[in-house]
Structures are given as C-alpha cells and as structure tokens.
Amino acid sequence: MSRSSTVILCCNTAFAIANYRGGVIRELVGRGHRVMVVAPRDHHVDALKAIGAEFVHWEMSGRSTGPLAQLAALSRLVRIYRELRADIAFHFTIKSVLYGAIAGRLTCTPFISVFTGLGYVFTNETLLSVLARWMYRRMLPWSKQLWFLNADDHQEFVRRRLVNSAVQVDVLPGEGVDLGRFAPAPMPPHQRTSEVVFLMIARLIKDKGVLELVEAARKVRLRHPDVRVRLLGAVDNGNPTAITQAQLDTWCAEGVVEYLGVRHDVRRCIAEADAVVLPSYREGIPRALLEAAAMCRPIIATDVPGCRDVVIDRESGFLCRPRDATDLGRCIDAFLAHTPTERAAMGQRGRRLIEQRYDERKVIAKYIDVIEG
To answer: What's the rounded Cα separation, in Å, for the pair 98 and 137?
Structure first.
C-alpha cells in the first residue's frame, strides 16, 4: 500500500458526509489514511467519529448571502486548510466547491470538485445563480479533477462552457449504495389494494417537487382515500425554495400528507412503503432512490437528469414530466392499477439495476485510485 495520506472531505453539512460517504471513510481509515471531515457541526459528528474520521468545525451560514459573512466563512476555511496541510481534498456542494477551490489554491492543497447535483444554481435564473456559474468558470480549472454523478450534469457544464479540456473529468455511478445494508425487503401486506403508502425522502424544498406531490396527492386521494403519502426529510430553511414549517403543518392537518421528520436510518420507512416518489426538478444521482431500489421498492420520479438514471420507465417504476402534478398523479394511478405481484416484480427489476450499475464498491475504488495511485 502507498504511504498514509491526510484526506479532507469538505461539505456544507456533516450529515451529508456521514450519510452518503460513510463507506468511503471506513475504507480509507481501514487502509491507514487520516480522514478529516470539514463541515459545520451537526448531530452526525459522533457518527463520523465512530467510523474513524476526525472532525473540524467550519463555521458558515447557510442562510446569509451577505459579503461579510461569506468572506468570514472563506477566511475560516483557508485557515483550516493551512493547519491541516492535507495531501488531497474532496469538495461537495456549491459553497464547498467554490470556497474549497480558493482555499485549496491559496494553501497548495490538491483538490477534486464533486458535483452531487446542479440544484438551485441551474434550476433557477437569479443573480446569485449567475454569480455562482461565473465563479465555477473561473475556479474549476484549479481542480485536480472534476467528478459528476451523471452524464447529463457533465454535458450541462460543457454546454455552458464551465469546463475545459485542461481538467480531467470523470462520471461516477452516483455515490453508490451499500447493497448489504440496503437489502431486499418484502412488500408490505395490505388487506385492501388502496392501502398503499408512497414515501418521499428529500429535503423539503420546492426544487424537490414537494408542491407537485402535495397537489397530486390531493387528487389521487379523492379516488383512493386510503392512499397515504409520507414525507421524510429536513425542513431546509437555508434554501431559497424551502417549504416552511407552517405550510407543512397545514398539509398534515389537512390530511394530505404525513410528516415523518428526519431519520438517521431510513430503511424501516422504505420497508413500510410500497413505492418511493421523488418529483425533483434535477438531481445528481439521488441516494434515496438508490436505497429504495436496492430494497426492491418501485420508484416514481421525474424524467430529469439523475432521476431517470435510476428508473427503467414502466419496468422498475414510472417517470413523469417535471413540474407537472397532473402527470405525477397519472403515474401514481398507473402504479395503483398494478397488482401486488406486479409491483413486487417491478421492485426486483430495480434491485437488479442497482446491482449492475451502482454498487458502492465501484465508487470507493475510485477514491482509492486517486489517493493511492
């Protein structure tokens, strides 16, 4: 094995590192590398330490876009990089990619920019979005490599001339999924066909398609009153398109959805669902859909980059038009028209797709190759 390296994983939440990259951390630590997670502190820090990572708190504001707050966050990150003197850093999410590029450049720390999804910067046309894309164009050439989680996102960067041939680009099979941990689960039993549970696992922001799901649920429940729609995920007040707690409370009081809060382990919630729904406007490769399909759950998602990579339309689930509650409702009705046996077969086909394309071991091997190669 090559010499031990100090590796930084920098993100805007400790949750994202613990939840999506735990397998990578375990493998790196097991091979003798020092893994430093740089992120704002949250309740997942103990979980990171339990698998061998060290944690460094990066104070930053998810809400403030004021120049002084942003400059202070950048200054703190540069100071952290100078102290750690890492051999390589991996940057995830918009602020980490942009601020990490500056910190890496100023401290001579080689880094890889990982695009887990294009999100708000590409699904909305605001001054902030334009500024972020301008910064991408100027700073991404400083990266050692650029990693995308689907080919559509890479092509979007090429189309907008945000990448050039001087930087090596790789398209990974998403973040991968632990096929042992997310094992096949039997479909939940129902006494009546209409007692079907649909589950959405996502941050509660408009760009995830929450509004479309609520509208579709209202109409579907008029025809199938026993159908249940559950939401699982954080109320993300730091996002410009966040759903407010008051709005969520109103929906729950109306009975159109049930809110499950935030869960560290989502497997039980997936096992209790008949299908997992994600009507997002755009994704990298959504981890929730990988985990659901690995557990043999059919998927209903939008026909957009990221989502369509995980679904074989009308075989392992259904794809609907984005931002279209009526078409989402059509897909839900189509799923309900299938027998329990047919739904189980759809889930099994989804599991086979995940086994073929999205095994976490393929992603881990890429990290090892870059760090030890």
So the answer is: 10
Kindly state whether residues 210 and 339 are assigned to the same domain. Answer: yes
Token pair in block for residue 142: 């400083």
**Containing domain of residue 148, as a range?**
6-176+360-372
Whether 185 maps to a domain, the answer reads no
Residue 235 to residue 309: CA distance in whole angstroms: 26
User: Model-level pTM?
Assistant: 0.85
- DSSP assigned state of 87: S
Tell me the average confidence (pLDDT) per consecutive run of 10 residues in the chain, 373 residues long.
86 93 97 97 95 96 71 96 98 92 98 85 71 85 94 88 85 92 93 80 95 97 94 83 93 97 93 97 92 98 95 97 98 96 97 96 95 92
* 367 shares a domain with 339: no
Place of tokens 């990266």: 143
Give the domain CATH number at 91.
3.40.50.2000
Q: ∠225-231-237 over CA atoms, to 5°?
A: 140
Return d(Cα 360, Cα 367) in angstroms, integer.
11
Count of structural domains within the chain:
2
Sheet containing 299-302: which strands, arranged edge to edge? 258-259, 228-232, 197-201, 275-278, 299-302, 317-320
Same domain, residue pair 18 and 46: yes
Strand 34-39 with 168-171, pairing: unpaired
Q: Are residues 353 and 364 in the same domain?
A: no
Comparing C-alpha atoms, which of 298, 305, 314 is closest to residue 280?
305
Same domain for 238 and 108: no
